[in-house]
Structure formats: structure tokens, C-alpha cells
Amino acid sequence: MANIVAIVGRPNVGKSTLFNRLTESRKAIVDDFSGVTRDRHYEVAEWIGKKFTVIDTGGFVYGSDDVFEEAIREQVHIAIEEASVILFMVDVTTGITDLDDEIADLLRRTPKPVYVVANKVDHAKRTHESAEFYAFGLGEVYNVSSITGSGTGELLDDVVSHF
Ligand code: GDP
Ligand code: MG
């Protein structure tokens, strides 16, 4: 069975930034040697010798700045159908929004593993602020900074334990 990790979350939480970080070395290789046009929303990544495909689901449904409930639903359905592991990304600098709650409601219905990823924890002091995300009832909150890479190793260690 394919190892697929889908990143879901409302716009601007940092999904694409994490996607690019996780797939960056692979992209460089593909760009250098094949010249093949890549699908920006699916890329292969590797961690401790385990290969998996990462999906940046936001790109499927956000054609404009308008985000409808239906688009959120579709994004999460894609993840639930296609992924083996789901990363639910939220933003520590904004805290929980109505859209976050909407997505959390949908994700609570899947038996697949869901990881709550609190992004933009760029400084240690923000670690405490992410505690509010435990309210989703989706288990452990992983603090990461997709920009600096902080915390992404701990997250990936647990994610690839499913592969
Ligand atoms: P997406 O809409 O969920 O794909 O979010 P993007 O990846 O496009 O990021 C939205 C904005 O958040 C951009 O301005 C990013 O530079 C910023 N961003 C992403 N990750 C981080 C992070 O770890 N820390 C901070 N401070 N900003 C971030
Ligand atoms: Mg994006």
C-alpha cells in the first residue's frame, strides 16, 4: 500500500511551506536530472530511509481567496480517501478559528491517524500558546516552524512509524 501523507488546513496556516520543506531535496534531484514538469501538489519525500508521498491538498480546491465550507469539506475528503496519514495544520499566531473547528469535526470521523501540527512556533515562548489546540480532541499537538524546520523531525519520526 502506498505511503501517502496529506497536509490539510485552512489557507495561510503554512501547508505549502511545510510541503516544500519536506519535498525540497527530492525536487532538486528531479529538477537537475529529468526536466520533467512536476505536479506541484504531489511530491515524494524521504525520512530515515522511508519514502512517502506528500499531498498539499489546499491546492486542489482553493482557486480563489474565497473559502467556502464546501471547499473545506472536499479538501478533507480528499485527504481521508487518499492518505494513509493526515497532518492537520493550524496556526499558533491566530489560534483556533471557526474553519479550524469545522475541519477538526470532519477529521474526528476518520479512523486514519491524524496529527495536529501547530505551525509558526518559531520561538520557544509560542510553545505554550499551542496548548489550546488540545481542545480539538485529536491527540498530541506537534509544535513546528515550517520556516526554520524546528520540530519537523519529531513529527516525521512519528509519521513514518506508520510506514
Ligand atoms: P498555506 O496557504 O496553508 O499553503 O500557507 P503558506 O505555506 O502559503 O504560508 C502562508 C504564510 O505563512 C506565508 O507568508 C508563509 O511564509 C508563512 N509561514 C509559513 N510557515 C511559517 C512559519 O513556520 N513561521 C512563520 N512565522 N510564518 C510561516
Ligand atoms: Mg498553499
From TrEMBL:
Location of the EngA-type G domain: 3-163
Binding site for GTP 1: 9-16, 56-60, 119-122
Superkingdom as given in the UniProt entry: Bacteria
Subunit composition and interactions: Associates with the 50S ribosomal subunit.
Function: GTPase that plays an essential role in the late steps of ribosome biogenesis.
Family label: Belongs to the TRAFAC class TrmE-Era-EngA-EngB-Septin-like GTPase superfamily. EngA (Der) GTPase family.
Name under which the protein is recorded: GTPase Der
Entire protein: shown range: 1 to 163 of 434
